[in-house]
TrEMBL record:
Transmembrane feature ranges: none
Primary gene name: fabG_5
One Pfam family from the record: adh_short
Name assigned to this protein: 3-oxoacyl-[acyl-carrier-protein] reductase FabG
Keywords of the record: Oxidoreductase
Family (UniProt): Belongs to the short-chain dehydrogenases/reductases (SDR) family.
Enzyme Commission number: 1.1.1.100
Record organism: Blastochloris viridis
Record-level Gene Ontology MF annotations: 3-oxoacyl-[acyl-carrier-protein] reductase (NADPH) activity
Keyword Oxidoreductase appears in the UniProt entry: yes
InterPro entries linked to this entry: NAD(P)-bd_dom_sf, Sc_DH/Rdtase_CS, SDR_fam
Lineage, opening ranks: Bacteria, Pseudomonadati, Pseudomonadota, Alphaproteobacteria, Hyphomicrobiales
Length: 253
């Protein structure tokens, strides 16, 4: 799909990987709606790329439907959806204070997995109504998983479950939406230089970087964005999960 002139929605677009994706899409000529629970962050990015800022919870069905309707009214129906919204809670199943609170597990799955599915289902419903482009394509969805979906570490049960669910639903959804000319792919990033990791002490960041075979450094959000752009532009890439991790394989701890 040619990105120029298309409408794109990026969730979690106020920072990190989402911000990089939003900026890259805008640089290619897309009209971008930046979605983030942090309204100020969404506004900052949207202003920088002449986009539309929206603040809502991606796991809230009504709020998301309303938000996407605002995108349609202001920019047009999106053909591109990049889901980067997500959270992580590191807790052991059996900690010093007893079993992990169920609410913690539910919250991570709700935001990461249910939120991704919610925005996908609603955006795909609108994409399916569009006239097809050359080759029959109507839209593309890119979800964000993690290498933790494959090698979850101790304390990552909720996070790994949520990201593993994103991986597992990719192929069946891609097969179902093929009839509408809508593609679905996933990026599974490793250790990236996001605001969360940059908040750690320098020695911790250096140690994490050394664990990556090559290149032995943290990934840059711009590298995530480059892969997202390729997934949009390469119309034969469908139903795939692509690791972006420098050959990293996470140890148990």
């Amino acid at each position: 799909m040619d990105i120029d002139g298309q409408v794109a929605v990026v969730t979690g677009g106020g920072s990190g990987l989402g911000r990089a994706a939003a900026e890259a899409l805008a640089a290619r000529g897309a009209k971008v709606a930046v979605v983030d629970r942090n309204a100020a962050a969404a506004e900052e990015v949207a202003n920088a790329i002449a986009g539309l800022a929206l603040a809502f919870d991606v796991a809230d069905a009504i709020a998301t439907e309303t938000g996407l309707a605002r995108v349609g009214a202001a920019l047009g129906t999106p053909r591109i959806l990049v889901n980067c919204a997500g959270i992580g809670v590191a807790k052991r199943v059996l900690g010093k204070e007893g079993p992990q609170p169920l609410a913690d597990f539910e919250q991570v799955v709700r935001v990461n997995l249910i939120g991704s599915f919610n925005t996908l289902r609603l955006a795909a419903a609108e994409m399916a109504k569009l006239e097809p482009l050359a080759g029959g394509e109507r839209g593309v969805v890119i979800n964000t998983a993690s290498v933790a979906a494959f090698e979850g570490q101790v304390g990552q049960a909720a996070y790994s479950a949520s990201k593993g669910g994103i991986v597992a639903m990719t192929l069946p959804i891609a097969r179902e939406l093929a009839q509408f000319g809508i593609r679905v792919n996933v990026i599974a990033p490793g250790l990236f230089s996001t605001p969360l990791l940059r908040s750690l002490p320098e020695e911790v960041q250096a140690s994490l970087a050394k664990s990556i075979p090559f290149p032995s450094r943290l990934g840059e959000p711009a590298e995530f964005a480059k892969l997202a752009l390729h997934m949009v532009e390469n119309s034969f890439l469908n139903g795939e999960v692509v690791r972006l991790d420098g050959a990293l394989r996470l140890p148990p701890r």
